[in-house]
Write a structure and sequence with these properties.
Elements lengths: L3 H16 L7 H14 L1 H8 L9 E5 L5 H9 L4 E6 L2 H10 L1 H5 L3 E5 L12 E7 L8 H11 E11 L6 H9 L8 H10 L4 E6 L6 E6 L1
Parallel strand pairs: 1-2, 1-4, 2-3, 4-5
Antiparallel strand pairs: 5-7, 6-7
Helix pairs in contact: 7-9
């Protein structure tokens, strides 16, 4: 007969396995995570998207696209734009492709599996790059940001939207649970962007939540 302590350990193990799917969704737990990702992050993502007020991009790349919702919203916001969405997880690519099947069939969106530390994309291609709830898992922030800068056109913009400002207790707790996760402050992100070659960086903090939006110009 299981003791309460054994049950608690088992439940904690299952919880850790589930939340760890945010890094690279795989298998049954990954499908569960992706099913909630689009709706669960929608308000935060829309808050971030509202910061895009002056640019009118023709080519967009969404990095770490997850369930694909944000790539679709970007192309709704910019109906004349073409898009590419990339994720490290094969399961995420599958989910994002299913979610955006109409945009894909119309030729406006391409979804690929890829690694942000070595993007299989040509230089000076995109007007806008976005990263929603994903840089926590990027392997070396400065090097990955340099890859983003490489694929952006001159004067191109890179927007990062995070649920964590790098100081909130809840996210820091998840940082200890999820292998490879690192929460960054707006200042740390800004420093890495400038070191990677971005020239102008603006940050905004949500008035009541630990959400941050960072927009950098190449």
């Amino acid at each position: 007969m299981e003791t309460n302590i054994e049950k608690a350990k088992e439940n904690m193990g299952l919880f850790k396995d589930y939340v760890s799917q945010t890094r690279k969704p795989e298998g049954k737990l990954g499908k569960m995570m992706l099913n909630g990702m689009n709706s669960g992050h929608a308000k935060m993502a829309d808050w971030g998207l509202a910061h895009l007020k002056t640019i009118v991009p023709e080519a967009i790349v969404d990095l770490g696209c997850g369930g694909g919702r944000n790539a679709g919203e970007l192309l709704k916001k910019y109906p004349s734009a073409q898009g590419v969405a990339i994720d490290y997880s094969e399961l995420s690519v599958e989910k994002a492709s299913e979610y955006n099947k109409d945009l894909i069939s119309s030729g406006r969106l391409e979804i690929k599996q890829g690694d942000v530390s070595a993007l299989a994309l040509p230089d000076n291609t995109f007007d806008l790059a976005t990263a929603f709830e994903t840089i926590y898992f990027w392997p070396g922030l400065e090097a990955c940001f340099a890859e983003v800068a490489r694929v952006l056109k001159d004067d191109g913009c890179f927007m990062i939207v995070n649920e964590s400002d790098g100081t909130d207790a809840a996210s820091l707790k998840f940082e200890k649970i999820i292998d490879g996760m690192k929460c960054y402050t707006a200042e740390q992100i800004t420093d890495a962007l400038k070191a990677a070659g971005f020239t102008k960086v603006k940050t905004d903090h949500h008035k009541s939540k630990p959400w941050i939006t960072v927009i950098a110009k190449k």
